[in-house]
TrEMBL record:
Class of enzymatic activity (EC top level): lyase
Keyword tags: Lyase, NAD
Protein name: dTDP-glucose 4,6-dehydratase
The organism of origin for this protein: Candidatus Limisoma faecipullorum
Gene field: rfbB
UniProt KW NAD keyword: yes
Enzymatic reactions: dTDP-alpha-D-glucose = dTDP-4-dehydro-6-deoxy-alpha-D-glucose + H2O
Organism placement in taxonomy: Bacteria, Pseudomonadati, Bacteroidota, Bacteroidia, Bacteroidales
Record carries keyword Metal-binding: no
Coiled coil (residue ranges): none
Length: 358
């Protein structure tokens, strides 16, 4: 017996959202042991967790979720009773260039993790009692909305368009199939676009903040008219905490901020905020906006209806968008060293060396 009340494995904990979830759980639940399992791909960075790495209830395991044997070993070693699964390839543009990696990690990796949990939990004396496999997914599995005010609900049919969303949709189906077939306790959440500290600067918001700072062009896909629904990452982490503890088994919950923005409008807010915080006169960086060829199959609009989560579990976003963007821009401007390490790839060379012989 580990002596901990719960032993929770968070996959992808060195990534953007995962690092916020790990931090929240490690700090809020000293009675839980939190095992952060991450392969440390280009998107994983242990510098995101500097403030928790010495906590006694935190453990890091560098491993690939596709390694079925290793997943069983880790689940047994730490007596894992809860999995919060965030590890994934997460960038749409990369999925268009290299769909195989997405199928491997997002589909086969999730299946490997599910099967490892199944094998280990079924051999446990208590079986599935007290266990939970919580799968983190995206609103992109629902496809694209028109400009008609409709929102994605938990009943919306899956219609993924990009290799990324197709791979996430497939993994969601496997998770639900493990409940329906084997009785595994699962829960799935589909969240809208997240923003905040520690996001890899290939995604719109950190990329643009960094480019403005370096006076580099801001590549706006197409006409900049696509709409995304933005949620501050710590609000997502709070929702995950709530659903992990209070969500109903086999349910799906949508998570979103009722906060839709046309890309071009959002970009102008970012430009204004960065210029203001850098002490530049308003409008200084607007000329950096550069319209470029549209993303292939670019989904027009995403918008999440998170009424169910509000009504059943009482969750609401805590931050207004203006406040969230201000905090986010400030964080990236104050953490240039983090940004420089990430953009130069230095962090990867450092951790590759550190884990080379393990
Ligand atoms: P991210 O790319 O920042 O982080 C992914 C993490 O997974 C990295 O630390 C990476 O090293 C790790 N990883 C990748 N492949 C792995 C493998 N084979 N084995 C072990 N670890 C591996 O992603 P993110 O933006 O933090 O997204 C986390 C999860 O949330 C993903 O499942 C994503 O689909 C989902 N999601 C993201 C958003 C968003 O706006 N970012 C919105 C909704 C849902
Ligand atoms: P992104 O952050 O990649 O998230 P997602 O594709 O998962 O929604 O992109 C957000 C929106 O911004 C999306 O409509 C594509 C657009 N975009 C650009 O216009 N330029 C860019 O350089 C990037 C990365 C995204």
């Amino acid at each position: 017996m580990s002596g901990y009340k719960r032993n929770i494995m968070i996959t992808g904990g060195a990534g953007f959202i995962g690092s916020h979830v790990v931090r929240l759980f490690v700090d809020k639940y000293p009675e839980y042991r939190i095992v952060n399992l991450d392969k440390l791909t280009y998107a994983g960075n242990l510098a995101n967790l500097k403030d928790v790495e010495d906590k006694p209830n935190y453990v890091f395991e560098k491993a690939d979720i596709c390694d079925f044997g290793k997943m069983q070993e880790i689940i047994r070693k730490y007596e894992i009773d809860g999995v919060i699964h965030l590890a994934a390839e997460s960038h749409v543009d990369r999925s268009i260039r290299d769909p195989f990696t997405f199928a491997r990690t997002n589909v086969m990796g999730t299946l490997s993790l599910l099967q490892a949990a199944k094998v280990c939990w079924e051999e446990d004396l208590k079986g599935y009692d007290g266990k939970l496999f919580y799968h983190i997914s995206t609103d992109e599995v629902y496809g694209a909305l028109q400009f008609d005010g409709k929102l994605f609900t938990e009943e919306t049919h899956y219609q993924p368009h990009s290799p990324y969303s197709a791979s996430k949709a497939s993994s969601d189906h496997f998770v639900r199939a493990f409940h329906d077939t084997y009785g595994m306790p699962v829960v799935v959440t589909n969240c809208s676009n997240n923003y905040g500290p520690y996001q890899f600067p290939e995604k719109l918001i950190p990329l643009f903040i960094n480019n403005i700072r370096h006076k580099k062009p801001l590549p706006v896909y197409g006409k900049g008219e696509n709409v995304r629904d933005w949620l501050y990452v710590e609000d997502h982490a709070r929702a995950i905490d709530l659903i992990f503890h209070k969500g109903k088994i086999a349910e799906t919950y949508n998570i979103g901020g009722f906060n839709e923005w046309r890309n071009i409008d959002l970009i102008k807010v970012i430009i204004r905020t960065v210029d203001r915080l850098l002490g530049n006169p308003e409008g200084t960086s607007e000329h950096l906006i550069t319209y470029v060829t549209d993303r292939k199959g670019h989904d027009l609009r995403y918008a999440i209806d998170s009424t169910k989560l509000k009504t059943e579990l009482g969750w609401e976003p805590s931050l207004q968008f203006e406040e969230g963007i201000e905090k986010t821009v400030r964080w990236y401007l104050d953490n240039q060293e983090w940004m420089d390490n990430v953009t130069s790839g230095d962090y990867q060379r450092y951790y590759d060396e550190m884990y080379k012989n393990r």
